[in-house]
Amino acid sequence: MEDVIGVSSLAKYFGEIRAVDGIRFQVKKGEWFGFLGPNGAGKTTTQRMLTGILKPDRGMIHIMGFDLVRNPFDAKMLMGVVPEMANPYIDLSAWDNLMLMGELYSVPKKRRKQKAMELLELFGLQDRRDQKTKGFSKGMKQRLILAMALIHEPKLLTPLQGVLRVGAGLWGVEGRKT
Question: Considering the domain boundaries, does residue 42 fall inside one?
């Protein structure tokens, strides 16, 4: 089975501090993958490298065959990133946030509208579709951010925050229904 994520000899240094040193792993289609460890173990640094936020000092990252360092655009088009500290555009409605994100990812207009309706329903936001997100609760904003990450139907969903309270960041790779 094809590697969706392939990491080899990955390293990141901050001055003399060795944040990540030589990790390697593969994630296959349909697998869930996570990072567990104490504070300072390199989980967040690794996740930031895997999404292209940080450039590794050494090593390789492949996302579905694309080298994330050499071909970041191609690799990132396959990902739906859920940022750690994210807010939708508060002066836009839930619908307009989804339309904007879909347009940024070049989703055709007809498909963008169809997918936005599906996602609003999936995340229980269809009744708030036309309301500005300024008044949304934190949970509603989080659901909308997740919908925005899924609007372009990514092959890989990458949350940048601990999904579990024990410090895990989970990565879902295809095979899910959205």
Answer: yes
Q: Is residue 67 part of a domain?
A: yes
CB within 8 Å of 170: residues ≥ 6 apart: 32, 33, 34, 159, 163, 164
Query: Regarding beta strands 58-63 and 3-14, do their DSSP bridges make them parallel or antiparallel, or are they unpaired?
Result: antiparallel
Domain match, 144 and 106 both: yes
Does the residue 71 lie in any domain? yes
pLDDT digits (tens, 9 = 90+) for 8-38: 999 999 999 999 999 999 988 888 888 888 8
Residue range(s) defining the domain that contains residue 71:
3-78+160-173
- 3-state secondary structure (DSSP) of residue 169: strand
Q: For the chain, where are the alpha helices, taking DSSP H only?
A: 43-50, 72-76, 94-104, 109-122, 138-150
Model pLDDT, residue 154: 86
d(CA 146, CA 140): 10
Per-residue pLDDT tens for 48-107? 899 888 999 999 999 999 999 999 999 888 888 777 667 898 899 999 999 999 999 999
Domain count, the chain: 2
Residue 86 forms part of a structural domain = no
pLDDT score of 85: 65
